[in-house]
Every structure is written in structure tokens, then in C-alpha cells.
Amino acid sequence: MRSLRFLLSRRWLAFALIVVLLGYAAWWLGEWQFDRLAARKDSNAVVRANEGKAPAPAGDVLAPGRAVPDDLEWRIVRATGTYASDDTVIVRYRTREGSSGIDVVVPLVTDDGTALLVDRGWMATDNQGTRPTDVPEPPQGKVTVEGWVRADAAGDSTAVEDQSTRAISSERIGAALDRTVYGGFVVLKSEDGAPAAGLEPVELPELNNGPHFFYGLQWWFFGVLAVFGFLYLAFDEWRTRQRGEEPVQAEARVEARDAKARARSAKNARKQAVRAAYERAWAEERRQRDRSAKPR
């Protein structure tokens, strides 16, 4: 166990904490993607079940002031009434394949006076300058409409100003038009058996599972990779210490000690050279003095 004490150093504890945080984040993101996958599958199952049912009267599925239940999304309903074209609402910022455009929502007033909001389709146009009077007119007189039920949007984007909005809310649109409307709205399938003239049909949902499964696996793989990287680096450190190989700091200490020894040796050599030079000079001076002292 003494050989693993390096894991208790500040550097390795900080490293371990980072790996734990990364692993938890990767696990949480993977779970989030798998939750989205489950929700997508449930939604697709509801759409497939409702698409296969015969059209139902709108009044049997929808009601004024009542939200659309999740299990009734994309249910096909039928209603007969008259389009109130003067109350057309423009839904802006509906981009399709890189082109800007709008959805056109027109109330269909039924015999009892309740209006069904019908999203008649999409039109490529400038989001800023288009007015309700610039869109194709709906059929005049009595018309029978079939469409897929959709739930209301929520949030600030549902605000209605000058018969324009960014997301459809039956409550907001009904209040702006001063009309009693069914909760939710329908995406037009046909009117009197034909699609809306001059408008492209609203895109239906893709009934696939999306990329959530592979995204979830990808996040979990990142978490496992982080843990594996930590374990490998710890093993490499342990193996280095077991072989008795000193770290770079130890090698630097040895080199510094050798350099000091070399410097000390050179210093001693210089001292000895200076002393020998003094001794030679002193001996030469004595010889000259002795010669001068002899009688001639």
C-alpha cells in the first residue's frame, strides 16, 4: 500500500476529483438522452395510433378552454363551417429548408358559433412584411375540413399583435379575435376533400427514434474513457516507482550535486596552482639574494 501513497498527493486528488465530475456529467447526459428517446417512442406510438383511426367530429375531441390531452395529439377530426377570412392570423418565423415563411391560421366558425383554428399551410415569404390580406383566400361558404389535432404552444412567443404571432395558442388567439374557440388547433389535411390552394401542407412529424440512442452511448463512452485514462496514468506512475526510477526532480538533484563537486575540484586546483607559483617566485628571489651576498 505504501507504493500507492502517491494517490494521496494534492495533484492526484485534484485529478481524481475532475474525473469524478466528468464521469457524473457524462452519465447524467447519457440518461437525459435515453429519457428523450423514451419520450420520442411514446410520442410516435400515440401518433401512429391516432393516424390509423377514422376522423372524429371536432366537438367530440376538442372543447373550448380545454387543453388537448397528450393521447389525442395528431388525432384526425372533421368539422363543417365557414372560414372567417377577416380574422386570419399569420404565424411568423416558420423556416423550411432554409427558406423563411409563415403559417396561415384561419378560424372555421361552426354552426354553434364556436371557431376551430385551422393551420391551412405554409407559404414562403418575408416574415416582416406579410399581412393577413397577402395570403391565399380560403374557400367561401360552407366547407368541411379534416385535420390533425395539435396542442397549444405556451410562453411569450404566443402573444398576438395585429393578427400576428410566433406560436399558436387558441387561448391567446381567441382573446385577440374576441371569439369562442376550441382548445388547441388543427393542421389542415383537406378542405372539401382537397389540400389548401396556394399553400404548402404543414410538415408532419418524422416517426423515427432520432439520434438519442447513439448520443446516450456516446456520452457514456466519454465517461468510461475518462475513468480508464485516470486508471492508466495511475498504473503508469505506480509502475515507474516500482522499477525504482526516480522522477525528473531526482535526476536534477544528482546533476546539481555532480556540478558542485566539479566546481569544488576546479577551485582547489586553482588554489594549488597559485600556491605553487608563489613558492617558485619565493625560491627564485632567495637565490638571487644569495648570489648578491657572496663577495666578489
Describe the structure.
Helices cover 44% and strands 17% of the residues. With 296 residues, the protein is an alpha/beta fold. It has three domains: 81 residues; 139 residues, no CATH class; 49 residues. It has a five-stranded mixed beta barrel with strand order 2-4-5-8-6. Strand 1, helix 2 and strand 2 form a beta-alpha-beta unit. Helix 1 runs antiparallel to helix 4.
Give me the number of helical elements: 5
Shape: elongated
> Helix share of residues?
40-55%
**Which oligomeric state applies?**
single chain
Poorly predicted spans:
none
Strand order, largest beta sheet: 2-4-5-8-6
Count of extended strands: 8
Percentage of residues in strands: 15-25%
Rg value: 43 Å
Output the structural class. alpha/beta
The first-to-last residue Cα distance is: 92 Å
Number of domains: 3
Quick structural summary:
By secondary structure, the protein is α/β, with parallel strands linked by helices.
What are the key terms here?
296 residues; 5 helices; 3 domains; single chain; 8 strands; 17% strand; alpha/beta; five-stranded mixed beta barrel
What's the structural blueprint in terms of helices and strands?
Layout: H1 10-51, E1 56-57, H2 58-61, E2 76-83, E3 89-91, E4 101-110, E5 115-124, E6 142-150, E7 164-165, H3 170-177, E8 185-191, H4 212-242, H5 248-293
Parallel strand pairs: 1-2, 3-7, 5-8
Antiparallel strand pairs: 2-4, 2-6, 3-4, 4-5, 6-8
Helix pairs in contact: 1-4
